[in-house]
Amino acid sequence: MIEYIPPTIEWVRKQVELYEASGGTQGTTLMETGMPCIIVTHLGNQSGAIRKIPLMRVKVDDSYVLVGSMGGQPKNPVWVYNLRANPEVQIRDETEVFNMRVREVTDEAERQKLWAASAAAFPPYIDYEAKTTRKIPVFVAEPV
Fold it and tell me: For residue 124, what pLDDT is reported?
């Protein structure tokens, strides 16, 4: 059995625990924002362990957009490297769980379309982008 390593940041860990323990009936909005979130279950790129992270719910058709904003910090969140190494994920959207495969969006026209959808779902992404010099990674999780 693959080991599960809970998130190290306390509020992130609590968010995941509430969401997961309730089967997706509680904790479905990201803490103070009141905006819908999903849980992305993936494998660590170094540990090989199961990792879980709450991300903003940005749905486009049957896919989810995953934005590596980290609040506009200068570094990418660790999960970005995990997804690059291990693209098979599970996404929990409230009570539904989907097996999906992610790909990093490199086509600029597609990225702009998905960025616009992401900013519409969670407007602070615009501030995060202005705050950092790095290009914020954008992934799309698609049904397997």
Answer: 94
